[in-house]
């Protein structure tokens, strides 16, 4: 049995941070839709340039484009036994498409941890987020500072603040989340897959809670 885990939560909830912390432990590749878009933009691909017209406004990239991109990624060999999805699905259409593609690959969604964080906390988290240029490692100037300011602890690359982490764009992203992504909480609750995790706690505690929520089953 394969294990596809979907990390759900608003922008700034800690999905990327937690995925970095648990993907090795779970032996699952970390698939971040936002990272794939940003990597494409860095390489100035057609997909990256198109996605950026939406990302910079805090809007979602259209479903057809996003679904095709994730399908290609999940079709690769490293995802054949499962994956840790961060940032996808973000709409009911994407959730349906995920179910279909996983069943084509002979798998299904295993569990959906929902990292729950109130809105005022999100804005502060995103305003202080610093991201690594080379590989997208995530820091926070107050809650998870790098050892050397502006330099990634893992690969020594430059840290930068994402354009879409500016407060005005963050507010837009949170609105978009409430309208388009929040319905997935009900969608996955109805399918008995949702497990809620308190994302306000310190990073290490959230990691422990997530691992225990995912533990036990699904090893086969
Ligand atoms: P997401 O991927 O859900 O948008 P991130 O993992 O990028 O969220 O986290 C957003 C910001 O909040 C980052 O700067 C990160 O270091 C910080 N952060 C993540 N989890 C916590 C936490 N539990 N407590 C405090 N800060 C956190
Ligand atoms: P965050 O870590 O703050 O949740 P992401 O890095 O996941 O943000 O996403 C950044 C932006 O990339 C989103 O605001 C959106 O424009 C685009 N994006 C990422 N994933 C998706 C998706 N599944 N569907 C549509 N757009 C997406």
What does this structure look like?
With 220 residues, this protein is of the alpha/beta class. Helix content is 46%, strand content 16%. It contains nine helices and eight strands. The chain has helices at 15-26, 33-42, 46-55, 63-74, 92-104, 119-127, 167-181, 183-190, 203-214, and strands spanning 3-7, 30-32, 82-86, 109-116, 129-132, 138-140, 159-160, 194-198. The strands form two sheets. It has a five-stranded parallel beta sheet with strand order 2-3-1-4-8, sandwiched between helices. Strand 5 (129-132) and strand 6 form a beta hairpin. The chain is globular, with a radius of gyration of 16 Å. The N and C termini lie close together (6 Å). The mean pLDDT is 95. Bound molecules: adenosine-5'-diphosphate (2 copies). The site of one adenosine-5'-diphosphate has 21 residues, from helix 1, strand 6 and helix 9.
